[in-house]
Amino acid sequence: MLLAPLFGAPTANLARLQTCTVKMTDEQVAAILSLYLSEHPERWHEQAHGLMFGALNEKCPK
User: Fold this and answer.
1) What is this structure's pTM?
2) Dihedral sign computed on CA atoms, order 52, 57, 61, 62
3) How many CA atoms lie within 13 A of 41 on its CB side?
4) What single string gives the DSSP state of each residue in 4-46?
């Protein structure tokens, strides 16, 4: 889900998303992505990790 650290991105930048999802079930995370895809059909051709980031970035408190 969060691939940025694999590519050298600072993990501190992901703290908000990690805090937001730490107690979520797999089903809840999948529901967030499913809703995001329903609301953004123009992004269906994109890779899953980018879509997941967009979905969580939109739903998790800033």
Assistant:
1) 0.81
2) positive
3) 1
4) GGGGT--GGGGHHHHHHHTT--HHHHHHHHHHHHHH-GGGTTS
Calpha distance 23→6 (Å, rounded): 23
Kindly list the domain boundaries of the chain, sorted by start residue: 4-59
Q: Which residues contact 1 (CB under 8 A, 6 or more apart)?
A: 21, 29, 49, 52, 56
Question: With left for phi above 0 and alpha for psi between -120 and 50, is residue 36 left, alpha or beta?
Answer: alpha
**In one letter, which amino acid is 1?**
M
Tens of each residue's pLDDT in the chain, 62 residues: 567 666 776 777 688 888 999 999 999 999 999 999 999 999 999 999 889 989 999 999 98
